[in-house]
Structures are given as C-alpha cells and as structure tokens.
Specification:
Blueprint lengths: L3 H8 L3 H9 L18 H15 L4 H7 L4 H34 L7 H13 L3 H17 L1 H16 L1 H12 L8 H18 L13 H11 L2 H15 L1
C-alpha cells in the first residue's frame, strides 16, 4: 500500500490531480489507516493510469466517469471511438503543421493559381491597388469558408470582367469609392449596374453562397464600410433589383 504522494509519483500526475479525480467521482477515495493516511493499492494505480491516458487523449472527465460503469464491450467500443477521434485530430494537426511550414517558407497558397493570375490582371486593367487588395481579401474569405461554391463564383466574376463593357462598370465602381455619397453619379452608376445585372442573368439570380451563410453579409458589409459612396450604391442597387 502506498501514499497519495507515492501514487502520484509512480503514475506521473500531481497530488492535486488525484484529488480532483476523487472529487469528480473518477477514482474512489480510500479510507484512512490507523496513522491517518490514505493508502492506495495496485488497482488504484491501474485505474489512475487508465484515467490519465483517457484524459491525455482529450476525453472529458464526465465521459471518463461514465465509462467506469460501462461493460467491457461498451468500454472497448468507447476506446475505438476515441481512437477514431484521435486519428481525425492528428490528421488535422498534420495539415495545420504543413500550413505553418509553408507559411514559414513563404509558400503558403491561400488562393488557387487562377485566382492569383486574375488578381494580377486587375491591376493591368486599371483597377486601383485598393480594389485589388479588397478582392484578394474577399476571395480568401470565400475560398476558406465555402470551398465548394467559391470557384463557381470566381468563374462568374472572371467571365463578367472579360467583357470590356461590364469591366468598365466595375472600374467605375472602383473609382466611385472617393465620391460623395450624394453625388448624382452614384445614382447613374446604380442604374447601369442594375441594368447590366438583369441583362446578364435575366429573371434568374447571380450565383451566390448558401443563403443561410453569414459570409455574404460580412463581405458586403466589409465593402460598404470602406466607403459611404459604396454603401449608398449597394442600397440603390438592392432597391432597384427588388423593384
């Protein structure tokens, strides 16, 4: 029989941890002997090793407590499930580790190559660095949160900008950033954008993200926050499309 300090040293946990396990009902607390000490046996050490192993695997203490009353078959099934969860976590950590190493080497690719090429083309077409940086940040957000839909949205925008007339509308949108919100040119630009949208998509809707997602609102809010003129332009376009 050994003391709590000896048990803690043998198993590799602190005395405080053992007392927490007592309080949580994970490890039965033995009675005190004639000298006033609590003495632990081999079974206590084995139980503590099991608890420590499960806790280190990330299993919540409440689940570990429930497993104390599980049958051998239930316990083995729980271990298999925990092993699967660990495998998934390890896979995720390895992916994260790979990204960190790419970041350290300066090779982290946040966007597909075709998107990077498109962003470079924007500058050649005359878009401001502000617009290019904004587009880059927004595409990073879209590809990170909606990888299954992002490429469709990107191709739609790329096709739109390939049309010189439509590209000019986007260039005018870019330049409108510094206009006063009440400038009449904002009203005219809103009408042009509404007309071009209806001509391109007809009665249908432009491709968009999941309507349950908060990302579209976040994206538009980010755009609007950078310019009162852009904010009013967005309000006018929405009103005209809904009319």
């Amino acid at each position: 029989m050994i003391t709590i300090g000896q048990l803690a040293g043998y198993v590799g946990v602190s005395i405080k941890t053992i007392r927490v396990y007592h309080d949580k009902g994970l490890l039965p607390e033995p009675d005190r002997d004639a000298s006033g000490y609590r003495r632990y046996g081999a079974n206590d050490a084995i139980d503590l090793i099991k608890i420590r192993t499960l806790a280190e695997a990330g299993v919540p203490l409440s689940r570990i407590r429930d497993l104390r009353s599980a049958t051998d078959e239930e316990f083995q099934q729980a271990l298999r499930e925990i092993d699967d969860e660990l495998t998934a976590r390890i896979r995720g950590l390895r992916t994260t580790q790979g990204r960190l190493r790419e970041l350290a080497a300066g090779h982290l690719a946040l966007l597909p190559a075709e998107v990077g090429g498109h962003l470079e083309q924007l500058a050649h077409w005359g878009f401001t660095p502000r617009w290019v940086d904004l587009q880059r940040d927004l595409w990073i957000l879209v590809f990170a949160t909606h990888p299954d839909h992002a490429i469709t949205l990107f191709h739609d925008q790329a096709e739109t900008l390939a049309d010189p007339a439509l590209r000019q509308i986007f260039l005018d949108y870019d330049q409108a950033h510094d206009l006063d919100a009440d400038d009449p040119r904002i009203d005219e630009l809103a009408r042009r954008i509404t007309r071009a949208t209806r001509e391109r998509y007809g009665p249908g809707e432009p491709p968009e993200l999941d309507t349950a997602s908060e990302i579209p609102a976040l994206i538009q809010g980010t755009v609007n926050a950078s310019s009162p003129a852009w904010q009013r332009l967005d309000t006018l376009i929405r009103a005209q499309l809904d009319a």
